[in-house]
Amino acid sequence: MTLHLAGNTPAGGSAGAAPAALAEQAAALNARWRHHSATDVMHAALAEVGKVALVSSFGAESVVLLHMAAVIDRATPVLFIDTEMLFTETLVYQTEVSERLGLTNVRIIRATPGDIARTDPDGTLHRHDPDACCALRKTRPLLRALAGFDGWITGRKRFQSGTRATLDFFEVEEGTGRLKINPLAHWAPEDVQTYIEENRLPRHPLVSRGYPSIGCAPCTAPVAPGDDPRAGRWRGREKTECGIHMVNGKFMRIGENQ
Ligand code: SF4
Predict the structure, then answer these.
(1) Which residue of 214, 219, 238 sits with most ligand 1 atoms within 8 Å of its CB, as the best mutation to test the pocket?
(2) Which end of the chain is more exposed for a tag (fewer CB within 10 A), N or C?
(3) Distance 9 CA to ligand 1 centre (A)
């Protein structure tokens, strides 16, 4: 397995297709793959969209897309955002899953040391301004890492919220010139569990300890059985999403289940 550090490159634009052409491309891809499986959509994303990365948190459900990518092409670029606030278990899991699946192009994305020193020198920004902390440690590093890519694959699903109820497999990411691909858009929670069991994939160790949704350690708490899986994220705060998806040129607060 090769690990690449990718967080210190300058910000820049993406491959950047014109908006009209991109919308046409997304519409054509959706029409063609509408009734196909998640695996077929993943194939299409990697074969037909251009330079595409899988963005993964190596969280509770991430292993599904990581496995699909590994089966199709082990050299698929996988972007892992290390906020330097993650659980140790996540870091260990990331290494173990990457090795087990044979992924050869996992890129670890971090905020630059300069940005950390300027914005969060004592590591407490998450306590008083979690939005700024997520922007520093997740959004900006990911934006830099995605420069030059034509699209990125996410784990978003229709069932996760009202705003995702009409989620398509292929969508235009407003303001970046990229496509976003959601192979699991139509999956239900049971589909995720079935896929993991049938393929005997390793689970994140915190899932069995009450963490169905796993983000940074200071901002994630266990939830009671039957509770909303995301109830343990930013508990006690209004914040519910991490903010790495763009709509109309702005970052929207949408969850971490990449
Ligand atoms: S989840 Fe918490 S610690 Fe992680 S980047 Fe966001 S605010 Fe910071």
Answers:
(1) 219
(2) N
(3) 22
Residue 79 lies in a domain: yes
Quote the number of domains for the chain.
Answer: 1
Give the domain CATH number at 146. Answer: 3.40.50.620
Percent of the chain, pLDDT > 70?
Answer: 79
Q: Which domain holds residue 69?
A: 3-208
Is 198 a domain residue?
Answer: yes
* Beta carbon of 65 within 6 Å of any ligand 1 atom: no
- Does 251 reside within a domain? no
- Calculate the average pLDDT of the chain: 86
pLDDT at 53: 98
Which residues face 245 on adjacent strands? 252
pLDDT (tens digit, 9 = 90+) per residue, 88-144? Answer: 999 999 999 999 999 999 999 999 999 999 999 999 999 999 999 999 999 999 999
pTM of the model: 0.86
pLDDT per residue as tens digits for the range 141-162: 999 999 999 999 999 988 776 5
